[in-house]
Write the structure tokens for this entry.
Amino acid sequence: MTYPRYARQTASAKPSWSGCGRLPPKCRLALDELADRLEDALTAVTRADLEPLTADLPEQRAPASSEAGGRRWIVAIMGGGNHRGRWRIASRCTVVNVMGGSDLDLTEAIVEGSETEIRVFSLMGGSNVVVPDGVHVELGGFAFMGGNDLKIEGRPAPRAGAPVVRVRAYSLMGGTDVERTP
């Protein structure tokens, strides 16, 4: 299988990035693309089966540093915000909603590792978290006079080794919904 979306993005990248040790944001894999590649890697039988998975990736790995991190805090007070498309989320992200809400779509989000923890604190507000297929999802926490719902029934279970998204939602007169991409 080839991955033309990634190859198209890297073809337009400026050559000056090649020696930097950091990759430009448009050259990183989205969560759904990572899940596809992991699934193909887990079903590979020979080394030749693995080569197409990395053929279009840069040779250097981006260093893990705090300056390259994604969004660690999302705050909505008497308002709200949407995070969709290609955006970076830290491996631990805290969402605070006070009489407001935040929508997080992780379908094209760039994550820092194979595990992402999202902590949601809602007071008279809430959040919607959308995750792509092929990602393992866990929802925990509590709700008082509200509700936290995991809406992923009817979808195939992710493979072993798939990326994990853990949502810990603590809601008072509000709630958090976690669902798969429609």
About this structure: The longest strand covers residues 88-98.
